[in-house]
Model the fold of this input.
Amino acid sequence: MPSVRIPSAWLSAALLRATALEAVVLAGHALLYPTGIADERRPAPGPTGPPDDSPASGPAPGPAPAGTTALPAAAPPDRPPVVLLHGFIDNRSVFVLLRRSLSRHGWRHLESLNYSPLTCDIRTAAELLGRHVEEICARTGHREVDIVGHSLGGLIARYYVQRLGGDRRVRTLVTLGTPHAGTAVAPLAGAHPIVRQMRSGSVPIEELRLPAPGCRTRFVSFWSELDQVIVPAEAACVDHPDLDAVNVRVSGIGHLALPVHPAVAAGIRQALDAHASAHGSAGAASVA
Done:
C-alpha cells in the first residue's frame, strides 16, 4: 500500500482540529466508560436449535401463519446480527453512538462484547470471540454475523476470521483504525503482551500475512491519515492478495473519533448493506 502524500500546511491545520476533536471524544468517553464495564444483558436463548453451516445470512423462511399475508418475494431479508468489538483498555461503551445509528436505520440484532483487559493473547481472544459468535447464531437463528471492530478489536476479529475458520460465520468484517500491518507506536508499548502483539513483526501479525485461500468474509477497513496510534497510518489498511477487501480513507479525524463520527457511521451502514452487490470487488474508497 503506497503512502499518501498530504500537503504539510493542510496537515498541520487538520491535525490541530483532529487533536482537539480527539480530546473532546476522550472526555465524553471517560464519562460513558463506567456504563460499559458490565457485560451486556442478553435475552435467554429461544427454542430454535443451532443453525447449520450453510452461507445464507438469515433464518430459513417458512410458510406464513394462517390468517396472515406472506411477505412479497422482493422484501429485504432480515439483516444478520452485528457484533461490536472494542479496542485495548476500552469497553462496549465506545459504541453507544454507532449502536444508536444502526438501530435507527433498521438493524435489529446488535451485540456489544467486552473482553477482559487482562487478556494477553490475540489468539486466545479470537477463540473467545468465536464462542460468542456461535452462541449469538444459536440464539438468533442466523447462520452469519457481521462484525465491527475498533483498533485491537478489529485485529482480534480478523484473526478469528482468517486463522480460526471464522469466515464461515462472518459475512462482513468492518475495522476502524486497526493495525492490520502492525504499528510502530502503541500505548504503553512493551508493557502488556497483547500490545506487543500489535506491533509490526509480531507473531500474530506475521500469521495474518500467510495465505488465506478461499476466505469467504468481506473486509472493509476505515483508516485515517491523522491516526496518531497507527504508524504508519496506512498500516490500518487490509493488504492481502487472498482477501476481498475495501479500504476507506477517512479525512480530518483521529483514532478515537472513528467509532463515533457520523460520517464513519454512515460508511459502516453502507458497507454492511452493500455486501451482496459489492462481494468480489476489492479496492479503495474515501469518507470526507
Notes: The chain is about 30% helix and 15% strand. Confidence is low (pLDDT under 50) at residues 54-76, 276-283. The beta strands are 82-85, 110-113, 145-150, 170-176, 218-224, 244-250, 283-287. The first helix runs from residue 8 to 32.
